[in-house]
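Input:
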Amino acid sequence: MTQQDFVDGRMLIGGKLVEARDGGWLPSADPATEEVIGRVPAATAADVQSAVTAAHEAWPEWAALSMVQRARILKNYARRLAEEGERLLAVEVRDTGNTIAKLRHDIANAVRGIEYFAGLGTELKGETVPASGEYLHYSERQPYGVVGRIVPFNHPILFAAKFGAPVMAGNTVVIKPSEQSPLSSALLAEIVAETMPPGVVNIVTGDGVGAGLPLVQHPLVKRISFIGSVPTGLAIQRAAAEVAVKHVSLELGGKNPMVVFPDADPDEVAANAIAGMNFGWMGQSCGSTSRILLPDALYDDVLARIKARTEAIVQGDPADEATGAGPMNNRGQYEKALRYIEIGHEDGARLVTGGQRPEGPRFERGYWLQPTVFADVTPNMRIFREEIFGPIMSVVRYSGDYADAIRLANDVEYGLTASIWTNDIRLATRAARDVRAGYVWVNGVSRHFLGTGFGGFKNSGVGREECFDEMLGYTETKTVHVRL
Ligand code: NAD
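Output:
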C-alpha cells in the first residue's frame, strides 16, 4: 500500500463525516507487515453522546416513514455498497489480513442481508386476540428507538454494514466497529452518508472502554446488539445493568465440535475439517469447528489426511486470489494463539503440524503463524475447552460410541455451531437433536444460509441473527385493549 492509499478515516455522526472532538486518532496497521496503513478518530464519550443524540433526533421521522419508503432507501444503500465492493475489499484485505477470496463473500453477504430485511418490513405484524367480547384486543410491534451495535474485528465490513434488521424495523443506530480493523468502516461511513438520511445510521470509531462502554451505558440506548467474545459480552451485560434495564442480544464465541461417526468418508471428513476450521480467516471466525472428534476406526487415516491438507495450504499475500491463509489480525490475537500453542504442549497434546512462524523473508514481520493441528487432545486440556480464535485445530480421539461422541461434543461452556458426519439418517438427526448448539450442519460446515437463525446456546449467546427473528428482536410488543 502506498502513502497515497493511506486511509484517513472519519466517523459519521448526524450525517456528517467528523473527527473526534478531542482530536484523538487510532492508527491501524497491516497485519502482514505491521506497517500503519490508516487511522480513524478515537471516539470518546463526548462523541458517543453526539451520535446517540443524532440518532435519537432522527428516530421519529425515520419511524414515521412507510415500509416501502424505508425499503427503497435501504435497497439503494445496498446497491451502493455492492458498487463500492472492490474499494472496500482492497482496504479490508490490508486491514484484516483475511484472504480476498473469503472477504468477497462478506461484502456479498452484507448486501444480501440488507436486501433480505428490506423485503420483510410488512411482515412485522401484530395480532388480534379474541380474549373477550367487550373489547378489541390487538398488538403492534414498535421499534426501541436508538440501537447500539458493537462489533468485533474478524468480519468488520460485514458486521458494520448489515444494519438492515434494526433500521428496517424503524430504529436508528449507532455502530461501534472494532479498534483492531476499523478502516473499512471509514469507507462505509462515506457510503452511508450518501445514501441514508442524516442520523439514522451513525458510526463511532474507538476502543471498547472509550467508546463502547459509553454507548452501552447511554440512557437513550435501550437496545444493545453485541457481537464479540464471552468476557466482553458479560462485561456489557453487567455495564448495561448498572444503569438501566436494557435488551441486550449477544453473538459470542464458540469451541465448536465436528462430530465424526465411524461410517463417514475419511477424505470428505478431512477436507471439511480444513474448510470448517476456516484457515482462510486464520481460524478467526466464530463458527469455526475447531474440535474434530474422530472415532478410533478412522483416527489415524483422517489425521494423516488432515495433516497433508493443512500442509498444502498456501500462506502468503492475502490480496492474492490463490492464497489459502494470510496473517492473524492483530498482535493481541497472535500472542494469544502462540500462548495456546505452548499450553497445548504443556498439557500433553501432540503437535501434528504447524505451530511456527512460516519461513521466508515475507514472514519476518507481521502476525504470521502456520496453520496448526494438535492431536490426542483430551477434555482436561485447555485447547479442548477454551476458544483460541486462531489457526489451531484440536483433534480428539473417541471410541466410536454415540454417547461418548455427544458427551465430548457438549463438554464445553460454548454452544454456537456443530457439524455432524455420518450417512446414517437416524444417527444424524438424533445427534443434531442432542448436540447443544444453535447452528448445526449435517455433512456440512461453515456455510450460513440467510433466513435461518444463527446464534448460540449456553455461553455462546442470546438471540438469533440472519433471520426474521433478528428483526423481531428489534421491536417491542405493545398490547392494546379497545372497549367496544
Ligand atoms: P471483543 O469482545 O474483544 O471485542 C468486540 C467489540 O467489543 C469491539 O468493538 C470492542 O472494542 C468492544 N468492547 C470491548 N470491551 C468493551 C466494553 N467493556 N464495553 C463495550 N464494548 C467493548 O471481541 P473481538 O476480539 O473483537 O472478536 C472476537 C470474538 O468475537 C470471538 O470470541 C468470536 O467468537 C466472537 N464472534 C462471535 C460471532 C457470532 O456471531 N457469534 C461472530 C464473530 C465473532
